[in-house]
Amino acid sequence: MRPLLTATGFRRLALPSVALIAALLINSLADRVPSSIGLGGNHQLIGILREFSAAALWLAGAWVAARLIDLLLRRAAVTGPRSASYPRLLSDLIHAALFLLAAIGISTFVFDQTATGLIATSSVMIAVIGFALRYVISDVFSGIALSFDRPYRIGDWIETSPGTIGKVVEITWRTTRLLTRDGIAIVVPNGLLATGRLANYSGAAPSFRSALRLSLAPDIAVARAKRILLAGALAATRTYSDLRPDVLLSECSDAGIVYMIRFWVPDYGQENMCRDAVMEGVLYALRRAGLTPSASRREIISKESDSDHAQGRTPPEMLLLDSELFGAFSTEERVHLAERLVERRFREGVTIVHQGEPASTVFFVREGALEVRSTGAPGGEIAINRLGAGDLFGEMSLLTGEPRSASVIALTDVVLYELDKEDIAPLLARRPELGEALADLMLARQRSGRARLDAQEGEQALELRSTSARLFGRLRKFFSLPDVGR
């Protein structure tokens, strides 16, 4: 358990405690002080010392009480459900109340004045000051109410009015200070926060759900549209793992059918980055599927898509032309391979390849999302990667004949293209040097996959022993290629 008084706490209590002890000693020894300094029984000096020490005793007591309450507030803030800075406004209010009580005690018990008399003589002044400072007073009392209700805390992201969103950095008597994501400081009077609408994006947990809206042409099947959009959103989980996206129909408009892509944001400060990642994944998935967002009476078509359609390229050709693994192949060779791709469709939840099974094919993802899982790590099967439109898997089996190194499961309905060893063998036989480039690219992908597995396991996995030369040797043996003197 965290101790109530730390070294810092003792230091903060030291000075007020010394003042309290000194005032107590002076008050108790007031009768002896004049004689000890040669003034005899000076009753006037004794009276002054008693009044001074009594007033100091009240003030020092209030000071010690204020420091103790500060320590309790700080401990409660640190040990609460969400660690945060303790509210400065509440601390200031308690300090003011304690010293006000001390002032009333001094007036009543030290100087024999009645509190009612003081209030009566200052009523006119209070009325004038209150009218002049009515808005300030309203903000102060609103701040008091907010300190008890605590609709937000320091560190929370709140929206005080439409478009005004910031992180709470300070709560004072009159105002709450916010800092926006763009680094702009906003000062909001507490009166506006207490009487207006307030949205807290942090709440009990910092995560909240955001959404994107996207229109697609009405002739696109709803099931296919949802599959493509969800796969694109799932691609963003490579960067932000806890997005948990889903896709819902929102409405039908003159622009087409509007879909809502929802996802969870871990913290409002990351909302822009999460939105960017989701939108980027969705647009890429649409492009891979040969689709574009629609707008009223026109379609928004990227220059890149225009170029593809102008040249009459098919989706398989686009996949091969954009594939890094086949970057060393000429355009004609990749078009030749695209003609040999076989379309495969799988339902959600189907295991497309099983770890350890023999194979000699590679799959290209046209639509949908998949998850790569490995059972070789301690603790059983774990997810090591997610795949979306434009990705491929199974290249090691295609080029070296090795068994599948991981299982791949469909997270949505998927559309894949499959390429067999027999389709690529004639090209490698004609140009054996392509095998060298393939070996280098395979090694890079293998290392990237191992790094992801290390991150999932939380420890360093077995060191990769494959080298580009060894991979090329296995590839050359699998395809019976001549030695090109690597």
Class computed from helices, strands and strand pairing:
alpha+beta
Helix count from the secondary structure assignment? 17
CATH class group of the largest domain? Mainly Beta
Low-confidence stretches: 296-310, 456-465
Q: Which strand order does the major sheet show?
A: 4-3-2-1-5
End-to-end Cα distance, whole Å, is 66 Å
* CATH fold-level name of the largest domain: Jelly Rolls
Please, what is the CATH homologous superfamily of the largest domain?
Jelly Rolls
Salient structural properties:
five-stranded antiparallel beta sheet; alpha+beta; 17 helices; 486 residues; 18 strands; elongated
Describe what this molecule looks like in 3D.
- There is one protein chain.
- The chain has 17 helices and 18 strands.
- 48% of the residues lie in helices and 20% in strands.
- It folds into four domains: 19-121; 147-200, SH3 type barrels (Roll), CATH 2.30.30.60; 208-309, 2-Layer Sandwich (Alpha-Beta Plaits), CATH 3.30.70; 315-478, Jelly Rolls (Sandwich).
- The strands form five sheets. Strands 4-3-2-1-5 form a five-stranded antiparallel β-sheet. The protein has a four-stranded antiparallel β-sheet with strand order 11-18-13-16.
- By secondary structure, the protein is an alpha+beta fold.
- It has helices spanning 7-28, 33-36, 43-79, 88-110, 115-121, 123-132, 134-149, 190-195, 222-235, 271-288, 303-310, 315-322, 331-338, 395-400, 421-430, 434-457, 468-478, and strands at residues 157-161, 164-171, 175-179, 185-189, 199-200, 208-216, 246-253, 256-265, 294-295, 298-299, 342-346, 351-353, 361-367, 370-374, 382-387, 392-393, 407-410, 414-420.
